[in-house]
Amino acid sequence: MIEPAVLERLKDIVGSEFATDDPEVCIAYSRDLATYLKFGKYRSPDCVVLPSTTSEVQNIVAVARQFKTPLIPLGSGINVASAHIPRKGGIIMDLRRMNNILEIDEEAVTATLQPHVTIARMSTELQRKGFFIPVPGAPSTVTVGSNYTHGNTNKASLRFGFQYSHIVSVEMVLPDGSLLRTGSWADAFSGDRSWPRGPGPDLTLLPRYALGLHGIVTGITIKAHPLDDICLPIWAAFEHVEDATPAFVEMVHREICTGSSLYGGFKYNSYSADTAECAWRQSRIHPEFILALTIQGSKRRVAFEEKVVRELTDKNNGRIITDRLPFYQMFVDTHMAMSASLYSEFAFKYWASPGAGPSFLGPSSMDKIIPCFKAMTNLASEDEAFGDVDWGNWEFNRSMIAYPDQGGHFAIIEGGIAAHPTDPKAIKAYKRYVPKLIKALADIGVSPDQSRANTRPGEFGISPEYLELAEKFRHALDEVGIMNPGVISPLIYR
Question: For the whole prediction, is pTM greater than 0.90?
Answer without folding.
Answer: no
